[in-house]
Structure formats: C-alpha cells, structure tokens
Design a protein that fits this description.
The protein is mainly beta. The protein is about 5% helix and about 50% strand. The protein has a 4-stranded antiparallel sheet with strand order 4-5-6-7, with no helix packed on it. It has a 4-stranded antiparallel sheet with strand order 8-9-10-11, with no helix packed on it. Strands 12-13-14-15 form a 4-stranded antiparallel sheet, with no helix packed on it. The relative contact order is 0.11. The N terminus is likely disordered.
C-alpha cells in the first residue's frame, strides 16, 4: 500500500520538465531556506534573480536553488557538481557526480559510489563509505553502510560517530525529536537516544528515497502530531502514542500548524487539530499550507490545474497552473515565491498574489 503516490507523481511530471531543461541530470529542487535567490535560464545564459525578478548575478554553469547559503552547479566541461555561495563565487570546486544540497552546514556527496560529507569549504568531514546517506536533521543523519537487503539503518552525528546503531529496516529524518523507523514490517518512533518511544505497531510509514535523496517523507511529527495507518485508515497520534484523531482517512498529510490535508474516496480537503473538516473534501489533490496558502488541484488529475486557497478555503490564485512541486518538497511558497509550470510547458516564478515574477520564454 502506498501513500500519496498520486500526488507526488503528478507533481513530479511537471517538475521533470523543469529539471530536464535547467538541471539535466539533477532531479532535486532543494528544500530549505533559499536565501531569496532563484535560478533562471535566458538566451542560453544562467543567472539568479531576486523575488522581484531582478537579476542579482550571472553564473557560468547550470545551478540549483540555494539551501543553507549554498547552491550546487554543474561544470559545463567536467560535468561534475560543485557549490557557489550567495555572491556567485565558487567555494566548492566541481568534483562530484552526485551531491545533496547543504543542510545544517553539511552536504552529502558521492565518491565512487560511496557517500560522505563535506563542509562549506569543501573539506571532507566524514569520509565516504556509506551506501546511502541523506541530510542532517536536528544534528543526526540516517545512513546505511551496505546495499545488502540485510543491512540496517542507523544514525550518525556530524563527526561520523554512530549515535544510534544500525538496527532498523528503514528510517526517516528526525523531526521534533522523533524519527519514524521500520522494524519487521511495522512502523514506530524513536527518540535521539534510539529508544523506541512509540512501539512499531503501525502498518505503514511513508519513507521513500531515490539515488541517495529523500524522495518524500510523510508520517513524521509535525506540530506535535504524526499520521499513522491502522487497518487501512489514517489517523494521528501524539508523541506519547495516544490516538488524537481517529483513523478515518484514505490519506493524511503532515500538519502545518493547525491544519492538515486529508482525503476520503479520492477527494481532498483539510482538517483541524481536533479532526474536524474545516475545508470540504472537494479537490482532486491538495498539498500542505505554507505561508498561509495551500495548493489544490481541480478537475481530472490528468488534465486539471492547480490553484491556491487561503485558510478559509477561498481561492486566491485561480487554478491555471500546471504544477511544479518537487521530489523533496510540497508544492508551496517559500519567502513569498513559488516555482511553477505554465501553459505550453513554460516554467517560472510567481508571488503570493499570483503575479508572474519571471517566466521562461
């Protein structure tokens, strides 16, 4: 049983057009703080713009978005990945075939098929010997030493020391001091000491990954609650494991402050922390609230459009957008800016009023 694959696959299709156009081999539009700078391509030249659409600086290579003050680029000659800072200066030379955006001052990089970590100067701080590694969250990173089916997941600190020994079949990032883990096909939650605070009794937790990146992760604790699956229905528990919202949904997203996106019979809407439906289940898809707005999909999944509603359910940006969310992110505004797709496979950025900041022609 899979959770929210329909949402992510539709969004992913729109994102792929952008990824192929701008990043080619890179398929991650990094989440995290973007420093108010956004990559564009115009007349074959690469630049970064601000939230008003003004070019801040030009760059020589294809670049990703900023995360933690750093943006990756692909060297046109070497076809390797390096990093620039917010002035456009190269601070990590292009040396990697694959790299994860910076989180908590470190980036996971792949060297000869093994993952390690570098700092913002490009210095290797954790030697590459992991089969899989993700990003640091709350000071810990989930890693796996082997591709063997019998290999387990554990957590290391920023010096590469094991903090939680590898004993889990799967593991998610830490959020609010808890991490989702899998043991023997069941899911529960651990604390930073590796203690099973909530025993693995639940049927499913959404932890997926592809090529070293976090593809998506839901079921993590957000604003004190986490979605869990019980006998085919989703509900929400608190950090003691107490069921706060009874399992009644076919899909349940992470809470964003006081609201979460849910679905019943393939219709999506929003509930509050008491489990009451506050925005009717009427959309074909819906994403989380961010900066007071949430993306909702109207019409058939295959040819409908995305718009944005506020917390009263009012449509504030009409459903004319083609999507644009990404593998690690919800389709959501950040610092008042959203990457999106327009008609005719055009891509660009809009503000929270729906005004186009910049559009690729």
């Amino acid at each position: 049983m899979k959770k929210n694959t329909k949402v992510k696959s539709i969004i992913g299709i729109a994102y792929l057009s952008f990824a192929l156009l701008l990043f080619q081999s890179i398929t991650v539009f990094s989440q995290g703080k973007n420093n108010g700078l956004y990559p564009i391509v115009k007349d074959g030249k690469y630049s970064f713009i601000d939230k008003y659409g003004k070019v801040v600086f030009d760059v020589e290579n294809r670049c990703g978005t900023f995360s933690n003050g750093m943006a990756f680029f692909i060297d046109n000659t070497l076809n390797k990945i390096g990093f620039i800072d917010t002035t456009g200066k190269i601070v990590v030379q292009p040396a990697y075939v694959t790299a994860v955006p910076f989180y908590e001052e470190l980036s996971a990089v792949n060297v000869n098929g093994k993952w390690g970590f570098i700092d913002k100067k490009g210095t290797v701080v954790i030697e590459p010997h992991y089969a899989f590694a993700f990003r640091f969250c709350e000071g810990l990173c989930r890693v796996k030493e082997s591709t063997s089916l019998h290999s387990k997941w554990g957590f290391i600190d920023k010096k590469g020391n094991w903090v939680i020994k590898p004993e889990f079949d799967n593991a998610g990032d830490f959020s609010e001091g808890m991490a989702l883990v899998e043991k023997d096909g069941k899911y529960g939650y651990i604390n930073k000491a590796g203690e099973l605070i909530i025993k693995p009794i639940y049927d499913y937790g959404a932890i997926l990954m592809r090529e070293g990146y976090n593809f998506y992760e839901e079921g993590k604790f957000s604003h004190g609650l986490a979605a869990v699956l019980v006998k085919g229905k989703w509900g929400y528990i608190d950090k003691t494991g107490k069921m706060i919202i009874a399992p009644a949904f076919d899909y349940a997203g992470n809470f964003s402050k006081d609201m979460a996106n849910v679905a019943v019979n393939e219709k999506y809407g929003y509930i509050n922390r008491q489990g009451k439906i506050v925005i009717p289940l009427q959309y074909s898809l819906a994403d989380i609230f961010s900066e007071g707005l949430a993306a909702v999909h109207t019409g058939p999944i295959t040819d409908g459009k995305w718009g944005f509603i506020d917390k009263t359910g009012k449509m504030v940006i009409e459903p004319t957008l083609g999507g644009g969310g990404v593998s690690t992110d919800p389709y959501a505004f950040k610092n008042g800016v959203l990457f999106t797709m327009f008609e005719g496979q055009k891509w660009g950025y809009i503000n929270t009023k729906g005004d186009i900041i910049w559009k690729h022609e």
